[in-house]
Design brief:
Blueprint: E1 3-9, H1 12-24, E2 30-36, E3 42-48, H2 54-58, E4 63-65
Antiparallel strand pairs: 1-3, 1-4, 2-3
């Protein structure tokens, strides 16, 4: 099972420190994407093959956010069954 989460940072250095911590200390495998944002901010998108405890993720610096998919419209579930 893949564990995915996204963190936003005020600087590239702060983001890289967290990425290195995930690779070296927590020994995650999978993919990480570093995305520049407007205003000098950075986003770290993590797709880990290794499961992490929620408390470990919560203890990481950065602001946890949801990643919006550009160009994909999300429809609300009406709750009806076909």
């Amino acid at each position: 099972m893949i564990l995915s989460f996204v963190l936003d940072f005020n600087s590239r250095d702060e983001m890289e420190q967290v990425a290195n911590k995930l690779w070296k200390q927590h020994r995650i495998t999978g993919e990480m994407e570093m995305i520049p944002l407007p205003g000098g901010r950075w986003r770290l998108s993590v797709h880990s093959e290794k499961q992490l405890r929620q408390s470990t993720i919560d203890s990481l610096p950065g602001k946890r956010t949801t990643s919006k998919l550009i160009g994909i419209k999300m429809e609300e579930d009406s709750g009806e069954v076909d």
